[in-house]
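Students often ask why we bother encoding 3D structure as a string. The short answer is that it lets us treat folding as translation between two languages. Here is a chain of 352 residues written in the first language.
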Amino acid sequence: MNLRRPLTALITIIASVATGCAAPDSGRGATITVYSSSGLSDWYRPQFEKFTAETGIGVTLFEAGSGELVSRVNSRAVWEGLDGAESVPPADLLITLPPFMQKAAKAGVLQSGGADTTGISPELVEAAGLFVPVALTALCFIANPSVTPMPATWDDLLRPELKGKLQYSTPGEAGDGTALLLLLQQLMGKRDALDFLAELQSNNVGPASSTAVLGPKVARGELLVANGDLQMNLAAIKNDKSRFDIFFPAMPDGTRTSISLPYLAGVTTLTTRPDEARRLLALLLSDEAQRALHSEAAGIPVRESIARETAQDTDALSPAAFLTGVTMWAPDWYTVLTELDADLEAYRVAVE
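And here it is in the second language, the structure alphabet:
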């Protein structure tokens, strides 16, 4: 995906490919629909093309903020077209960030994906197989190179010269924005986190339902600082030549911490093609696709053997290079979900 396009949602159609290698019983001419949080389309594109070449089944990709996606799936409705675009069918495969995937599982709109989870951390796999991780990323921040001095700490985000030039994706709507709230709670405690965000509000441009819209604004200089997603931002630098710097704000003692974010995938109960959705999920978890995740989209593979292999990459734009010296925190996402509504209400009150 070209992250310079300031859209909250994007529809990409991967058409069926007429090749002789497709299975004879594949249902040629059919399509399945993937709803995904923004950021992985550089990886999806060749994987979906491979799937279509093998099966004769096309893939429709719809990208938006995590909360928006799960709300639509939970409503069990067709997504009406945006700006004159065609309506998007219900999702066959949902790929989104926590705790929104846990919310979808709780709502009963997921079914077992039957995925082989060998070599994947059990903590990331839903007990009944309703969802599995397909990629890992981490919360980060980005800054336009013109910012002097470059922000280095959380307190630097409060500098008055950033007024009207800073934005973060909205907790409760975007997965990364929700992760930002959770990380601040972990680092500062809930009360101090709300006080910090209330103070930060004087610099904040306003709500953003998806983190994907922020990177292009920072690259163009419309914003000077924004929260980001390490995988998405590295892919934008490598593939789109976006101009921004990535950093992880430090606490007063100099420690830097981020929150580990898995892209979680689940076959929905809305699908009329569950076998095909499971086959696509299996392809995304294959060793070949997991290696491509790292090389084509700067993502962290979920199969631990592939993750160890790619962690040796000496590329300065590899995820491992940026995470050196950063402590990774992984919350209990089901606990997060039980407290989320109250936390989001407290956040809304704090920033009003």
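Translate back mentally: The mean pLDDT is 90. Keep this in mind for the problem set.
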